[in-house]
């Protein structure tokens, strides 16, 4: 490499870094507390087949919402009451907890991408009508970023990539292994759990930056 | 800079990186749960002037130990019972909590280096003999690495530096703003709190690596 090539290379890297610092790579943060996605079958078991669920509020991801109804998670070492149920119903019930929740419940949930429930942890759910013990379904959701295809193009990433995202401050850190999820139905947002947020002292709507 | 200087500089950086990847930069992890360092005056207030404290066990840092006695932290929104007291006594009482502990207690503790208590958070301590409300003293301890001067020389860092430390795995991340604390009395060990450990799914005695 001659001097001119070297200068060109360094210039390119400096520009890339400056772009990275200019806010164009910013991603809004959303912190996920423990929550449950229920199958229609488990909705009937926990609330009764005649119960009609009420929507509490829409979530930031289009088509996703939280119900007014809540349930109780029961583990061998502890319980959590008033746990939020998200809709719409899914083919299989999925419970998302944090590492510290798992310690309190006494449940060894694996770190998984959403939907990957094979041999995940067992947990009991309790509703006002009945209860059910899931043979599997409890996971610690892998940190991920929802993005529209236009965001993915802008960032130069694709669905299922694992990337690194930096947050600033006195507890600043870089999250590695951040799963990229791309869909026409998604809005740009980074989803981390409460442990991950507290480790960086992040709050909802703070912003993070792709490295 | 001429070509030879450039080659020397690049060679140095490559060697540094290779060393970083070779495992020589490994640091054992110790996870700090909430705990209290008491002044002699507060020991007397909480346990009575005639109480003689018993040592429960020595800690990994030379000269530091945990007492058998425990106390209760009382905040406006919650309490924590059975909180560990570490010794020896300090000139001023210092309470170290995590971000999630602060949320449960209802206390806005700042992120501080140990000993930097000026205008930190107020908190009430309750013992079997009496209680005391600290006007200040509750902090979220800044993540830090204890090291002996020989470790600091090996890593090329000095006391009060802030460095970056990487941990691997499905929840892998890089802790930035990691305070370096160097003393003849210290043993190599990275101290993070429970939120920081859970964010990376780390356990005691796992190892991290200086970037």
Arithmetic mean of pLDDT of chain A: 93
Number of helices of chain A: 5
Give the quaternary arrangement of the chains: homodimer
* Element-by-element helix/strand order of chain A: HEEHEEEEHEEEEHEEEHE
Query: SS-based structural class of chain A?
Result: alpha/beta
Please give the share of residues in helix of chain A: 10-25%
Radius of gyration of chain A: 20 Å
Give the neighbour order of strands across the main sheet of chain A.
1-13-10-12-11-14
Distance between the termini of chain A: 27 Å
Question: Strand share of the residues of chain A?
Answer: 35-45%
**How many strands, which pairing sense, and closed or not: the largest β-sheet of chain A?**
6 strands, mixed, barrel
**Unreliable stretches of chain A:** 19-23
Number of domains of chain A: 2
How many strand units of chain A?
A: 14
Largest interface: A-B, 26 and 26 residues
| Global geometry of chain A | elongated
Topology, pairings included?
The structure is a homodimer.
Chain A: H1 3-21, E1 26-32, E2 35-37, H2 40-47, E3 55-58, E4 65-74, E5 79-87, E6 94-96, H3 99-105, E7 111-112, E8 121-126, E9 131-141, E10 144-147, H4 149-155, E11 162-167, E12 173-182, E13 189-193, H5 194-200, E14 207-210
Parallel strand pairs in A: 1-13, 2-5, 6-9, 7-9, 10-12
Antiparallel strand pairs in A: 1-14, 2-6, 3-4, 4-5, 4-8, 8-9, 10-13, 11-12, 11-14
């Amino acid at each position: 490499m001659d001097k001119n090539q070297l200068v060109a290379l360094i210039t390119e890297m400096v520009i890339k870094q400056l772009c990275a610092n200019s806010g164009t790579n910013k991603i809004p943060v959303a912190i996920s507390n423990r929550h449950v996605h229920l199958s229609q079958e488990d909705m009937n078991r926990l609330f009764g087949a005649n119960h009609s669920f009420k929507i509490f509020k829409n979530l930031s991801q289009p088509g996703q919402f939280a119900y007014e109804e809540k349930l109780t998670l029961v583990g061998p070492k502890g319980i959590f009451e008033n746990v939020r149920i998200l809709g719409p119903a899914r083919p299989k019930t999925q419970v998302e907890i944090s590492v510290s929740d798992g310690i309190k419940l006494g449940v060894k949930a694996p770190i998984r991408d959403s939907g990957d429930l094979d041999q995940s942890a067992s947990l009991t759910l309790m509703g006002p009508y009945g209860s059910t013990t899931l043979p599997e379904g409890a996971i610690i959701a892998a940190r991920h970023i929802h993005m529209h295809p236009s965001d993915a193009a802008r960032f130069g990433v694709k669905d299922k990539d694992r990337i690194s995202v930096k947050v600033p401050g006195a507890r600043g850190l870089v999250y590695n292994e951040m799963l990229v999820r791309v869909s026409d139905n998604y809005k740009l947002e980074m989803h981390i759990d409460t442990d991950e947020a507290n480790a960086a002292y992040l709050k909802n709507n703070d912003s993070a930056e792709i490295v």
